[in-house]
Design goal:
40% helix, 186 residues, Rossmann fold, globular, six-stranded parallel beta sheet, alpha/beta
Length: 186
């Protein structure tokens, strides 16, 4: 499933809610979270620490949603047991992800090569949700793998593309107005 739409429409939150629901029902054995390590117009430079410490800042919205659903302690336990896995996109090549709910967040910042690599990781008994906002591409080249995937794959009946608009914004009412004004200027 692809959830494409502007900021504040609940793409990330709803993906995590669905993942947690399927985990609790025993339909998947683990939740895998990934996101491209692309900064929004700023370069944060070298980040100290181990792999988890380096990617955690990029995954904060996913953690926030998980904490809402499960609580901080349960999330920490699941991370320790490998039931929730943080998987940097760059390290997914060669993996087959089975019995898992996999979320690729901020997919507008994947390259076409990264998107293809990610989508072809799906194993048996797994579900994938790809979220992104095509108006917030932070890639230097501007070539978004999400935009390419939408164009190439929208006719595959087994795939679902949910397209959200500013009318779906669930944040402060000003967010919808801001999105609409920016859209008018594009």
């Amino acid at each position: 499933m692809f959830a494409i739409g502007p900021a504040g429409t609940g793409k990330t939150y709803l993906s995590v809610v669905y993942a947690v629901q399927l985990l609790k029902q025993g339909e998947v054995k683990k939740i895998i979270l990934t996101r491209p390590a692309v900064e929004a117009g700023e370069n944060l430079g070298f980040l100290p620490g181990d792999l988890k410490e380096k990617v955690d800042p990029y995954l904060r919205p996913l953690y926030d949603s998980l904490h809402d659903m499960l609580g901080v302690e349960q999330v920490d336990k699941y991370l320790e047991k490998g039931i929730i896995e943080i998987a940097p996109l760059a390290y997914m090549r060669g993996r087959t992800l089975e019995d898992a709910f996999i979320i690729l967040d901020e997919a507008q910042n994947t390259t076409n090569v990264q998107m293809k690599m990610f989508l072809t990781r799906m194993g048996f008994h797994s579900k994938m949700v790809v979220t992104g906002d095509v108006t917030q591409v932070d890639l230097k080249t501007g070539n978004s793998g999400l935009i390419v995937a939408h164009a190439l794959l929208k006719e595959i009946k087994e795939l679902c593309f949910v397209e959200l608009t500013s009318l779906d914004v669930v944040r402060h009412p000003l967010v919808q107005k801001i999105i609409d004004r920016y859209k008018e200027c594009e």
